[in-house]
């Protein structure tokens, strides 16, 4: 007979908005073990599995600590309440917890104060307070849950909610009838109970004892700290959003670049400092989606997007928010894992702002084949390919703006835009390969530039710090022949050094923080910049590395930077040791720039 051997949950802490799918190990009638589901529609030997989820609500009101979500809160910051900060962030488990967190907690108060304008009206930040189920007030009302008209969780049909049991000051509400359950705001602070029982297909009665498991208390999903859009002329733009929260100037557009950390790389061995629940993909994908959607960018360039996550999650979810999607998966000549988990570059754009004109795919493996055949002696080609073939790719998209650029010189003209999205080789000892990949991409973009009068953006994770040869090539248009990165060139692919140039007038968007004058917010941002390179101090923050690897470059003769998403400071991130963390779900930070197209004459 069918029987249940074991039931357990993959995550130790349930989080609002993140699916819970228990691991259920079964023994078939033939004594073999399986984790396959046995639904009522396809019984096995006359039996099937029935699942139920319950919320256990105590008569005693419970809140959870905002710093240690597995702990019950014992005190609340009244300053947060007065400042209308999301109430979930106001709870702490002990006076020591509150004292230790104060240096970072006071930032919430400072932000709330700065978000009040002269008339005393609160203004929303670009990446503002999520009024979603993850960060609102804790709902401790029993009546609110009991009055729920129906249950919609999972794929089971709707059915009336019911109080199933009340004992010892606890009430059990049935909240779901399928294997997977997604906690809601009503579940915050409460324990959930999962029940799995074998049922006779004929009598519909349980057979034997049911298997149950209790979760810890459900916690709200931590919301990333709001990040403001800062004008590079020194004026905050947070009062100039349209009804959708986007910048109101019709000729401006925003571009986001973000390495979201592929799930296949997000291992507990690499990121042991991150709680397991915060490292799990069901949690991270929801947190990343909230963050990305919250920026409301017109163009979104993501790196390290697994092909299965692109198809099953990001493309359909961002489609709901008005984005069209394009994707280029890495090649798999080196990678030997599941092809569905190979990551790649994904570019999204708002359908109401842009239309798709053309797509180019750059496979550096193919370029490596051509290079070795042209310049490497046949006896050394295998060695050369082993060094050059790293599966990296770039996705180049040509878009046409649907908005007017305004100005007499541009009336009636199509406004095209070329956006390159790439992820360069990560290998630290292959500096020649990194530089060659960047040079290959730039030479491809030069060909596009000669065929069309078109502004360009080059976004991505270049795995190259400011001052490195790839960065010098991008930012300066050339690499000094005495640059130390050129020493390691065993294949001779970088010689002669005079070829390490390009003609695109590229400038790093975030260098605007260092180059422009004094203004509100700029001094704070300047302290987060490296004065020697005019780049952010970091865009990647792990326990073992702190530095800048990500950039948004633009052609300065055709585009101008209007504003930039504020940078994060190391101190606020280090409160969670490093990235990723419960608040930020990647080891990189997102970069976002607002641009305006110039009226210009081609040189």
Automatic annotation (TrEMBL):
InterPro entries: CCR4/nocturin_mRNA_transcr, Endo/exonu/phosph_ase_sf, Endo/exonuclease/phosphatase. Its cofactor is Mg(2+). GO terms for molecular function: metal ion binding; mRNA 3'-UTR binding; poly(A)-specific ribonuclease activity. Pfam families: Exo_endo_phos (PF03372). Transmembrane segments: none annotated. It catalyses: Exonucleolytic cleavage of poly(A) to 5'-AMP. Component of the CCR4-NOT complex, at least composed of CRR4 and CAF1 proteins. Acts as a catalytic component of the CCR4-NOT core complex, which in the nucleus seems to be a general transcription factor, and in the cytoplasm the major mRNA deadenylase involved in mRNA turnover. This is poly(A)-specific ribonuclease. It comes from Manihot esculenta (Cassava).
